[in-house]
Structure formats: structure tokens, C-alpha cells
Amino acid sequence: MAQHQVNYLKDGGLPVALTTIDKVVNWGRSNSLWALTYGLACCGIEMMASGASRYDFDRFGTIFRASPRQAELMIVAGTLTKKHAEFIRRLYDQMTEPKWVISMGSCANTGGMFNTYATVQGVDRVIPVDLYLPGCAPRPETLQYAVMLLQQKIRKESANKSQKPKRLM
Amino acid sequence: MRAYTPKDDVQKKPYYTDRYWVAPQVAKSDVSEDAVFAADLEAIKAKFEVLDAYIQVEQMVVVIHAADNFSVLEMLKNELEYTQLSELSAIDWLAQEGKFEIFYQMLSMSKRKRLRVKCKIGEKESIQSVEKLFRSADWSEREMYDMFGVVINNHPFMKRILMPDDWEGFPLRKTYPLQGDEFAQWYEVDKIFGKEAREIIGPENRDPARVDRYDTERFARLGHEVPRGADISQGEPDTPLVYQEEGGVFMIDKFDAEKSVVISDRDR
Question: pLDDT (tens digit, 9 = 90+) per residue, A48-101?
Fold first, then answer.
């Protein structure tokens, strides 16, 4: 005669998972990073390649959105000109909290080889940056790694509402 | 007697200049060598004053008065079959002669010839727009205004095309610094945050290889790691920066693992 016996304390027998609010919220946030399409130059091509089928950003939950109001990640991919600086700031301000920024490639990090009057010498002069991604241009694998690092960073953060938004000044 | 030139720092400052050196020039030939161009030049000369004309790299160059630019191009287009204006811009000769040289590069598909019309205007002078003849002149003339500050008369939309509308200065002039004047260097900060934010944000870092050896937040020290954010401004032995091209370090030493200080977790 078969004896039905479940050990509720072993092998996940108890249909209950214990965790913290922080972990659950950050699990959700880090695995559904919706990125704003922000290709400014040749890094934009690599960013598009990362989103396309071969590298497939969708499996990280990173889906490109064309509206800043639906995005929480801004990948600044390319050279930021001084003419465009006010627009990147306006789009960043339109994104809802919490929001993160990846500065992709040498031009976005430091102005890169464009040491001229018309290029912003690093997007961190305009918006706060979470992660600097070196390369000219970085390969899609590198951008994937950057997104994974950002996920780790988000999982370490506190999900508390009272957390202050990042400020440049 | 020859003037004395000090020769004690010859290695640093070359004092020798070749008196007979002449800047290389593209060879010019006479217009009469090409029958098509000679006929064109005669037609232009019949109506307008031609200051200079020659053939350079199989293209005729005609120098005219700046006041004639519209009527000369009108004649070239309607009578002499130069139906395309392929390029138009200015050259800054302000330092040499106080003038801009404006050139119009013309193409005749039927004659298979290219012709360049040149004229010179002063810094404060303006020139007539040729946008009514060639639509391609629209953006070229706007770019000429944007980059050189050459004012165009009778242009339908005289506005900057590349730089922002509130930009000051004309970037392609020889006197404009490559890394921008003060207005350009603070442009985005002034516009977004206001002038009072200049001190907080700080000047642009124009040296991409700059490493602040006392900044332990953003730079990890090689060979002797310290915790992130540690203040090392006091009592640190100075490591002189030497470059190979200045006769500095010749061989680069590998880090000795036993002598190096390595911290497993910099973020602690």
C-alpha cells in the first residue's frame, strides 16, 4: 500500500518562497530593463546588433522602446554633440524613476577622438552615468556584459521608495 | 655683417630656414590650350571683367568681381551649358589679405567640363545668393554663413545649418580655436544648468589619458592598491610620470606580485 508522504521542509515541498521586498523588486527591475533607443553614431549600429536576433537582448528582458516615458535605461551610443546636449537632458528628465544610464563607447565616455569645439567631452557633463563602457565601438558582447553588470548593480541597490534620485549637481 | 643668432639651444629650437624654399603649387596652364574653355572664356569676357583665368588640373578657373557672381553664374547656366553647381564654399584668407575667397564649382554634362568661378570679398561685405539659379546653393550658402560668417543677400532662409542657432563665432575661420573659445567650452553647461553651475561641473577634461593619482574613487592604482575613496593625498611617495619619447623609461618593468599590494575587494 502506497504511503503518501510529503516532507514539507525538504525539496521545495512547501509552496512558499521566503525573500525580501528588495530582492523581489530588484529581480523584477533588473530583468526587465527597457532601454531607450538612443543611437547617436556608429555605436548605435552595435546597439542595434545587440538587439537583433544573433545577440538577442530580449532574453535579458531588455526591450528597446521609442519613448522615454516607457524606458528606464538610456544607452548613450555615440558622439554627443553640443547641439544635441539639451535634448539628451530633456529626454533623460522625461524618463521615470528609477532610471539608469550606460555611456557606450569612447565618444560618450570622454568625447573620444573628437577633441573639438562641437563635441561634449563626456555625457557625464550633462546626465549622471551609471556605467562606462569602453571601446570604439564596443562589440555587442561587450554591451551585453555591460547590461549584465548593470543588472548586478541594480540587484545590490535598495528598492526603497525613499531612495534619492541620482543628481549630477 | 650677418646678424648673430644664438646657437646654444639648437637642439630645441631649429634656427635654420631655407630661404629658397617655395611652397609647392599645382601647375597652371594657359586657357588657350583647351578650345572649349577658350570659347567659354571669350563669352564671359565679352560681358564681364575677368581678373584672371587659367587651367589647373584640366579645370578652368575664372576669377571675377564679387558683384558679378549672380550674372556670371546665370550666363554659365543658361548660355554656356554649365547646368550643375556641384560645390560652393569659402576660404579664409583674412590673415593674409583680409578677404574671403568664394568659389563656385560648376559642371557641364554636355561639354564634360568642370569650371571654377572665384571671387573675393572683405570680412564685412556680403555676396549675392545664387539659390535662385541652383537649388543646391541653398544649404551650401547657409553652411558658408554658419562656418565663415559670410553674409548672403537675398537668401530665402538665412540661418545657421550645422551649429545651434544661438552659437557664437564661426568655427571654420582660421582664428577660431579647434577646442573652442570660452563660449563653446561652456555651451552645454550654460544652456542646461546655467552659468552658476560652471564651478560645480568644472572645466572640460581635454586629456583623454589623464589619471589623477590622488583620485581613489575613479582610478585604481597599479602596484599599490588602496581601498576605494581612501585619502592618499598625504605622505604618498611621488611616482614621477615619464614618457619614452622624452628620454624616460626605456623598458617597462613587470609588476612583482610579491612587492605589489593587491586588495581583493576594492569596494569594501
Answer: 999 999 999 999 999 999 999 999 999 999 999 999 999 999 999 999 988 999
Where do we find the cell 562606462?
A132
- 3-state SS assignment for residue B161: coil
Residue numbers in B near A121 (CB within 8 A) = 204-206
Contact B119, B65 (CB under 8 A): yes
Q: Do A117 and B189 touch (CB under 8 A)?
A: no
Q: Which of B47, B86, B88, B48 is nearest to B64 (CA)?
A: B48
CB-CB neighbors (< 8 A) of B204 in chain A:
111, 121, 125
Buried b (16+ CB within 10 A) or exposed e, B204-239: beeeeeeeeeeebeeeebeeebeeeeeeeeeeeeee
Chain A contacts of B185, Cβ < 8 Å?
117
Average pLDDT over every residue of A102-124: 92
Are B176 and A116 in contact (CB < 8 Å)?
no
8 Å CB contact between A112 and A79: yes
Q: How far apart are the first and last CA of chain A?
A: 73
User: Global pTM?
Assistant: 0.78
CA dist A36 and A38 (Å) reads 6
| Residue A151: band (very low, low, confident or very high) from pLDDT cuts 50, 70, 90 | very high
The dihedrals phi and psi of B69, each to the nearest 5 degrees, come to: -60, -40
Q: Which of A74, A120, A122, A111 is nearest to A94 (CA)?
A: A74
Mark yes or no for CB contact B201/A112 under 8 Å: no
Coil vs helix vs strand at B182? helix
> Higher pLDDT residue, B74 or B257?
B74
Residue A144, pLDDT score: 94
Q: Is the dihedral of CA B104, B60, B125, B172 positive or negative?
A: positive
Query: What is the percent of chain B with per-residue pLDDT over 90, rounded to a whole number?
Result: 61
Measure the N-to-C terminal CA separation of chain B; round to a whole number of Å: 75
Cell of B11: 637642439
DSSP A60-129: GT--EESSGGG-SEEEEES--BTTTHHHHHHHHHHSPSS-EEEEEHHHHHH-TT--STTB-S-GGGTS--
Whether the pLDDT of residue B239 is over 60: the answer is no
**Residue closest to A92 by CA, chosen among A18, A161, A38:** A38
Residue B15 has pLDDT above 70, yes or no: no
List Cα–Cα distances, B72 to B34, B102, B252, in angstroms. Answer: 20, 14, 66
Q: How far is B228 from chain A (nearest CA, A)?
A: 17
